[in-house]
Write a structure and sequence with these properties.
The chain has about 240 residues and is an all-alpha fold. It folds into two domains: about 5-185, no CATH class; about 185-240, no CATH class. The chain has twelve helices and no strands. α9 runs antiparallel to α10 (about 165-185). The longest helix is centred in the middle third of the chain and has 32 residues, at about 130-160. The radius of gyration is 20 Å and the shape is globular. The termini are far apart.
Length: about 240
């Protein structure tokens, strides 16, 4: 049976100390500040770093609970944000897996795959030998997760020590990162339509149903974008 080369674990950990890892650390500093601003317990935020491990879902979860909604609705909102991660998991594991090797390392690696790790895999994994790739993903994920836990704690406590304008800037860093991540992930007209429609629908939905504005704007905007894209595709096929 082929075996993984676990020297890739350390090699992956080293990759966390690059520009993408630094950008991610700054975003989790903002997450820590956001958690404090919303009076959310720090222990809960750290637990999300470890078990949820996807910043958009974590922001949505904190925002939903801060609005007084039920845990079930919060979980539904997080699930909707997490659906986008499945193609990333499939792509990274298809590129990393060692045919015939034990499967449990793949399950562990899958937990760490989110947008940043997917981008870094696209950038660097080709240079990693096949037997080291799954350990490389695990090492990178562990190092990123550890750094983000520290960044969350630092952001949480730094906010109390900063001048109010600087603390406010740190709080809004995470929503700004969230928006930029949406722009970076847009690959088709339907993606851009979903972003535009969500931005247009958000303000009126906030006025009508402020408790669920983020969830409704995302669902309605994404659904309309999908329907428009399908209609455009059918119209294009009918043209001679």
């Amino acid at each position: 049976m082929p075996r993984y080369d676990w020297r890739g674990l350390v090699r992956g950990m080293r990759m966390a100390f690059t520009i993408p890892g630094l950008v991610m650390a700054m975003s989790f500093l903002g997450f820590g500040a956001l958690v404090r601003a919303m009076i959310f317990p720090l222990k809960g935020a750290v637990a999300m770093d470890v078990f949820m491990w996807a910043l958009p879902g974590q922001v949505v979860y904190v925002d939903t609970l801060a609005r007084g909604l039920t845990l079930l609705l919060a979980l539904l909102a997080v699930t909707l944000t997490a659906v986008r991660l499945m193609p990333m998991v499939v792509l990274v594991l298809a590129q990393a897996r060692l045919p015939g090797a034990r499967r449990w390392p793949e399950y562990l690696a899958a937990h760490f795959i989110a947008a940043t790790l997917w981008v870094m895999s696209e950038m660097y994994m080709d240079a990693v030998p096949r037997p080291q790739r799954v350990p490389w993903v695990i090492g990178l994920g562990l190092a990123l997760m550890g750094g983000m836990v520290l960044s969350t704690v630092a952001g949480y406590y730094l906010t109390a020590q900063m001048p109010v304008p600087l603390a406010a800037m740190l709080v809004f860093f995470t929503p700004a990162f969230f928006i930029l991540a949406l722009f970076d992930g847009a690959r088709s007209g339907a993606d851009w339509a979903a972003i535009a429609l969500g931005a247009l629908i958000g303000p009126p939905v906030h006025l009508l149903w402020p408790e669920v504005d983020l969830l409704l704007a995302g669902v309605i905007g994404g659904t309309l974008a999908m329907l428009i894209s399908r209609k455009a595709a059918r119209t294009g096929r009918r043209r001679p």
